[in-house]
Amino acid sequence: MAVPEKVLTNQDLEKMVDTTNEWILSRTGIRERRIVNESQSTSSLGIEAALKALDVANLKPGELDLIICATSSPEYIFPATASLIQDRIGANKAGAFDLLAACTGFVYGLNMAAQAIRSGSIKRALVVGAESLTRYVNWEDRNTCILFGDGAGAFVLEASQEPGGVLSSVLRSDGSGSELLTIPASGSKNPATEATVRAGLHYIYMEGKEVFRFATRVMAQSTREALAMAGLTLDDVQWIIPHQANYRIIETAARGLKMPLDRFVINVERYGNTSTASIPIAACEAIEDGRVKVGDKIVFVGFGGGLTWASLVAEWTGPSAPRKKVDPRRYRVWARLRSLLRRVLRFFEGIIWGRNA
Ligand code: UT7
């Protein structure tokens, strides 16, 4: 996982909009969130998380076959942020694409990568959830600006003859709720113009109450569906790792499932809603502090814009704690040099072709 160093507390927000620490804490469970600085972006956080994940998995970037970047805040409409990550980590044998399913994207991505591996077409995939969603936040809108934060998390998936890994998944969408959570302008329907910017249509718009109702309805239901598909029951599950949008949403889902809250991994208090990054960040923390152990059955459950939702049941077969202290710098320097070299080569190629044309 990777999160920016800069922390924005509820007390900071009290100075920006008409809100209070008490209101935010009691309605959402959030105390603080991380915010990108000017030099950070979705890909820079994604790169850092990707390099750490590769190190933990003991793999070189060149061994990856596929990179999926689930993101709600891509750096561009195109090229894909996944391609930027592929280049900068030096994964020169990997395909790369972005996956847009809003906050549910990471669970969708995990399932896609697992199925690609299961089909035999690839052996290793990197799934990244990366966000700099605060770049789309209207800091004058107290309905939304208190909720979101930035960060990234990454998993490496690998083919194996051992049982475990992804056991089942349920992916769903209901586009009739598309207007409840959206960035209304700057896509092809409403391209960015002076008028759209003046109207603030390039910011996140959310009908919070409706989204809250939807989230609490689908979380328990899809968790049960995914478990039934895997032939398991809630009693077989050690951990539920839900999308971290609001403490009260997780609380309601726990009640719906009749499961104690202490079997849910919850860190919304420290990071707010980091969209696609929230599940891998929560998972990473729970693995590093020893809560999630090899052999544990886990349900990842996400929901968000689209509307979309998904549950995925997995048996954790990965490392139970970091193998060693990770220093992503050594990859970063080489990747940067390689990327630079390729650019220089392309430049000279251009001159040669220009001369021949
Ligand atoms: O990642 C995907 C998805 N997003 C979510 O999952 C978000 C889901 N929704 C939510 O988490 C909650 O709906 C919110 C946290 C966004 C809002 O909580 P709520 O309990 O649903 O509050 P509300 O929107 O019904 O607003 C209650 C009152 C309103 O005032 P009135 O009309 O009762 O006078 C709001 O204007 O609270 C007011 N309010 C605030 N007050 C202080 C709204 N935002 C704030 C604020 N500070 N930041």
The DSSP helix count reads 11
Radius of gyration: 20 Å
Largest sheet data: 4 strands, mixed
Ligand kinds: oxa(dethia)-CoA
Sequence-ordered SSE layout with sheet pairings:
Blueprint lengths: L6 E3 H5 L6 H8 L3 E3 L7 H16 L8 E5 L10 H9 L5 E5 L5 H14 L5 E8 L19 E8 L6 E9 L7 E2 L11 H5 L6 E2 L1 H22 L9 E4 L4 H11 L10 H4 L6 H11 L8 E8 L3 E8 L13 H28 L1
Parallel strand pairs: 3-4, 3-5, 10-11
Antiparallel strand pairs: 1-2, 5-6, 7-12, 8-9, 11-12
Describe the protein's architecture and organization.
With 357 residues, this protein is an alpha/beta fold. The protein has helices at 10-14, 21-28, 42-57, 81-89, 105-118, 194-198, 208-229, 247-257, 268-271, 278-288, 329-356; strands at residues 7-9, 32-34, 66-70, 95-99, 124-131, 151-158, 165-173, 181-182, 205-206, 239-242, 297-304, 308-315. It has a single domain (7-315), classed as 3-Layer(aba) Sandwich (Peroxisomal Thiolase, Chain A, domain 1). The protein has eleven helices and twelve strands. The chain has a four-stranded mixed β-sheet, with helices on both faces. A four-stranded mixed β-sheet has the order 7-12-11-10. Helix 7 packs across helix 8 (247-257). Bound molecules: oxa(dethia)-CoA (UT7). Residues 19, 23-24, 27-28, 103, 142-143, 146, 181, 208-209, 211-212, 215, 245-246, 249, 273, 304 line the site of oxa(dethia)-CoA (UT7). Oxa(dethia)-CoA binds at residues 19, 23-24, 27-28, 103, 142-143, 146, 181, 208-209, 211-212, 215, 245-246, 249, 273, 304.
